[in-house]
Amino acid sequence: MTYVNTSQTPIVLTIAGSDSGGGAGIQADIKAISATGSYACSVITAITSQNTQGVSAILPIPLEHVESQLDAVFTDLNIVAVKVGMLADSNIIKVVANKIRQYQPRFLVVDPVMVATSGDLLLEQSAISTLKQELLPLADIITPNLPEGAALIGTSVPQTQAEMGAMKAQLRSLGAKTVLLKGGHLEKDENSNDLLITQESDELISAKRFPTHNTHGTGCTLSSAIASYLAQGNDLTAAVKLGKTYISQAIAHADELNVGQGHGPVNHFYQGHADVR
C-alpha cells in the first residue's frame, strides 16, 4: 500500500548562517519556526564560530553548494514562505536572489543581517548595495533594526521615535512591499516600539520591554516567526503582530535559561516542552 501524506503542513525555508552557539542564525530560525507551529527546512550560507560573547570566524559556504541546497529543497518540498538572514557576501546574495526568482515562493521575509548583538559585522560593506539591488525588491517584508535600517539608507542611527518616523520615505524607496523597522535599540523607551511601514501607510506596533541581557538572536527569531505565521495563512499585518507577541514572550522568559557568559539566547520554547517518558 502506498502511503499518501494528506496533511497541509506549512513549510518554511530559512536561508542563513549557522551559529555554533545555537542562539541565532539557522539554529534560532529552526527553533522559532518549530515553536510557532510550522515545519522548518534550511539552506546554510555560512558557518560561524560563535558563542554568546561574539563571533570569532566566518566561513562562507561555496556558491555551488548554496545553489545545490536551494535546488534540493525547492524541487521536493512545498515551501510556502522563505526567511532570509545572513548572506555574508555579494555572490551569495546573487545566487539566493536568482533562486527566489526561479522558484517564486509565496512569501519572502528578509532580515538584513549586518551586525550581531555583540556588535560584530556579519555582512561585508560591499554586499549592502547588492542586497538592495537584488534581494530587497523581491521581499514581502524586510525587518531591519535601527542600525541596519540606517545602514541601508545611509543615515545616522535614530535616537528617538520621531527620528525613526523620519526614515519612512527612504525605507519605502528600497522597493520591498513592507518594512518592519524595529525600535528595540531605543532602550530608554518604556516599550519596544516597531514601525510597520507599507507603501500607503504605517502603524506602530508596541510591546512591553523586559530588562534582560539575554537578547541573542532576537532578529532571527522574529523574522522566522513572521515567516511561519505567513505560511499558516495569516495576512502580513497579523503575522507581524503574532511574531511580535512571540518574540516578546521569548524575551520575557529568557532569564529562565542559563546559557553562556555573554548575551544569552531568548527562550524559544517558553510555552513548554512535551512530556516524553
TrEMBL record:
Pfam families, from UniProt? Phos_pyr_kin
Q: Where is the Pyridoxamine kinase/Phosphomethylpyrimidine kinase domain?
A: 19-267
Instruction: List the molecular function annotations (GO) for this entry.
Output: hydroxymethylpyrimidine kinase activity; phosphomethylpyrimidine kinase activity
Q: Is Kinase among this UniProt entry's keywords?
A: yes
Transferase recorded as keyword = yes
Q: Which enzyme class, named as a word?
A: transferase
Tell me which EC number(s) this protein carries: 2.7.1.49
The UniProt entry, under SUPFAM superfamilies, shows: Ribokinase-like
Q: Which UniProt keywords apply?
A: Kinase, Transferase
Associated pathway: Cofactor biosynthesis; thiamine diphosphate biosynthesis
Q: Under which name does UniProt file this protein?
A: hydroxymethylpyrimidine kinase
Q: What is the lineage of its organism?
A: Bacteria, Pseudomonadati, Pseudomonadota, Gammaproteobacteria, Vibrionales
